[in-house]
């Protein structure tokens, strides 16, 4: 790991050295012509007296042009060092591996991360479209994602206008923005979509009810999604445990009433 960071710092230093050499102005050439002109004029005693009588001011000394540093050593050092690194990476396997880890792998990892983000975002959007009104925990568990990943992508999707959310009790629920006004009103009703299908199946099964496994097989949904809807229906007293077994559920009297009202509205 230290070798990777050393390689990155070395490449950065060589690039900076080359850039510094490029930015340096060319060295100021000496003014030979003015010197030649002065040498051609005859030197007289009056000139010597004048030079002795008129010393240079401090401003004249400060304004005297100074030679700029030669950029050639910086350019040769920077470019030469980069070329030497490139040749060494080709012919020396260890150096080549270090350079790959230092320069190429970060770019590839960034591309992979971007691709993975797009894939997770698409999965979340598709899951929300298929399960309008699903809350955060069920969405997270249904896709097997971490809290931070789910929160980040749902926030990005909502900012992009692809989904919308609302608070329902203790939960934050999500739905696709492609729904019209009537559909948006309907998803706030606890009896819609998968939840309505579960209640209909349980109502048709009678007093014995059905176990979760049987419900999953009939509705072809995941365990996490079924568990989410069962908890919601049970919390609203629309279903209750069956007398047959603790694992079985049946529609309650209140659930039958709500189911009839839902059918009447449809």
Notes on the protein architecture:
- With 266 residues, this protein is mainly α.
- Among the domains are: 118-179, Winged helix-like DNA-binding domain superfamily/Winged helix DNA-binding domain (Arc Repressor Mutant, subunit A), CATH 1.10.10; 189-265, Arc Repressor Mutant, subunit A.
- The protein has 13 helices and six strands.
- The protein has helices at residues 2-23, 32-40, 45-53, 58-62, 72-91, 93-130, 136-143, 147-159, 181-187, 193-204, 212-219, 223-235, 253-265; strands at 134-135, 163-168, 171-176, 210-211, 239-241, 248-251.
- The radius of gyration is 39 Å and the shape is elongated.
Furnish the topology, listing elements before pairings.
Blueprint: H1 2-23, H2 32-40, H3 45-53, H4 58-62, H5 72-91, H6 93-130, E1 134-135, H7 136-143, H8 147-159, E2 163-168, E3 171-176, H9 181-187, H10 193-204, E4 210-211, H11 212-219, H12 223-235, E5 239-241, E6 248-251, H13 253-265
Antiparallel strand pairs: 1-3, 2-3, 4-6, 5-6
Helix pairs in contact: 1-5, 1-6, 5-6, 6-8, 7-12, 10-12
Describe the largest sheet: 3 strands, antiparallel
Count of DSSP E strands?
6
Count of DSSP-assigned helices: 13
Stretches where pLDDT is under 50 for at least 5 consecutive residues are 27-36, 59-64
The fourth-level CATH homologous superfamily of the domain at 189-265 is Winged helix-like DNA-binding domain superfamily/Winged helix DNA-binding domain
Average predicted local confidence, pLDDT = 76
Radius of gyration: 39 Å
CATH top level assignment of the domain at 189-265? Mainly Alpha
């Amino acid at each position: 790991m230290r070798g990777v960071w050393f390689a990155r710092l070395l490449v950065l230093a060589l690039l900076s050295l080359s850039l510094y050499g490029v930015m340096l102005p060319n060295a100021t050439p000496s003014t030979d012509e003015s010197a030649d002109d002065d040498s051609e004029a005859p030197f007289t005693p009056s000139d010597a007296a004048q030079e002795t009588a008129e010393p240079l001011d401090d401003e004249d000394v400060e304004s005297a042009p100074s030679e700029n540093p030669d950029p050639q050593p910086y350019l040769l050092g920077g470019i030469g060092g980069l070329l030497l690194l490139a040749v060494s990476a080709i012919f020396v396997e260890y150096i080549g591996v270090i350079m790959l880890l230092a320069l190429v792998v970060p770019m590839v990892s960034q591309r992979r991360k971007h691709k993975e983000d797009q894939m997770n975002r698409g999965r979340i959007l598709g899951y929300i479209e298929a399960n309008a009104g699903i809350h955060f925990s069920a969405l997270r568990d249904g896709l097997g994602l971490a809290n931070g990943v789910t929160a980040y992508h749902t926030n990005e999707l909502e900012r992009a206008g692809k989904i919308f959310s609302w608070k329902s009790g203790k939960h934050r629920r999500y739905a696709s923005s492609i729904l019209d006004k009537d559909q948006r009103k309907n998803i706030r009703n606890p009896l819609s979509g998968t939840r309505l299908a579960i209640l209909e199946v349980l109502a048709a099964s009678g007093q014995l009810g059905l176990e979760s496994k049987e419900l999953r097989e009939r509705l072809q949904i995941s365990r996490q999604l079924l568990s989410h809807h069962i908890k919601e229906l049970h919390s609203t007293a629309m279903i209750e445990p069956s007398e047959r077994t603790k694992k079985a559920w049946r529609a309650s009297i209140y659930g039958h009433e709500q189911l009839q009202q839902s059918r009447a509205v449809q």
